[in-house]
Amino acid sequence: MNWINAHRATVVFHRDVVPRGQIVGTGGVLLGEASEPQCDPAGSGHAMRKARMWSVIPGLSRFVGRGWTDAAAEEAERKAARAEPPMPRVPTAEEIPHLPTVGTRRKPRGQATTKRADVAPIPGGTDVLASLDIYTEHFGLTAQPFSLTPDPDFLYWSAAHKRAYSMLEYGVMTHAPITLITGEVGAGKTTLLQHLLRSLVPEVRVGLVSNPIGSREELLRWVLMSLDLPAVPEDTYVDLFSRFQTFVISEYAAGHRVILIFDEAQNLDRAALEELRMFTNINTGRDVLLQLVLVGQPELRDIVGRKDMRQFAQRVAALFHLPAMDLPTMRDYIKHRLAVAGRTRRLFTEDAVKLIHEKTGGVPRMVNRLCDLALVYAFTAGRKSVGPAIINDVLKDGAFFPVDTDDAKGAQ
Fold this sequence. Notes:
globular, Helicase, Ruva Protein, domain 3, five-stranded parallel β-sheet, 16 helices, about 400 residues, about 10% strand, about 40% helix, Rossmann fold, 7 strands
């Protein structure tokens, strides 16, 4: 610190006396040597001596706080408070409001739905928002019995569904080149397909194409993607078909079979169906390397039945049309789904069941929709059963579009 002594600097802060030979900064930090003790009781020369110190030691203000008066410190604290707001207080568990919980679609059997006291009831005292399973506790159910989402647990094996599934199995087991299953919208075709996919052995390679549309080249790209095969835009039709054929032959050499399933196949036009027929030309002699399963609405039967499609129709080895349910079948269908959901007692009156069949045509998806709405209406009205008056209320409010019964009968 000899370069400080050369200037014989003295620093005095807060009217303190500095011992001889020391220069002390803010907080008692030892900065250097001084010539002799100094005292400034009145503080008259304080500012001048500090100014001399800053000129002697450039940058010292970063360490000792140049010109740092009490007023300046208070102003700096106020600026810091404005620039950096204080951290918010963390609320306690008691202060956090209770949020509505979303009920699962299904609860374990025997477990009742817990009522919530924080949901405002509707006029009449009915708690509508207790959970998404609006009416389950009211009717003694463990799940929604008439959900529109396909659920294998609720699958009802009517006589027609058993025959349709038997035809699917027959086509697969006998290596039928083409299997064709048709049915009305919501008749349960997709549910049967899901059940079939569960039962297939690992030696069967399945490609599922849902809602196939497009040209013959686009259709082939859909097929390759369903089999996890590459189909880059630069590939020509010849490249795509060669890759597909090589895959089918290699799978057959490994002891596997390839089955292509087309759901919503009524969207395929004549050219696309003809392309599928050409796929089956891969099969040679007694060896069936490739099988096709087409599932669609009744229009698919009409397309295949045309005269210019006779080559395609001749290769259909398994064919079945899934009709809508008649009244006795629909009655058992409703009873079955209620039983799976935990209800053993009768819930829909006989007159209500007849009216449901009349307005839905016996189509399972439409039956589910109308029954679900009827349970909601009965629940809001505080009823423990569903009669024809509840069904009529649903229809009068326009909450359900009834099926044209003449079209439904024609489809059967």
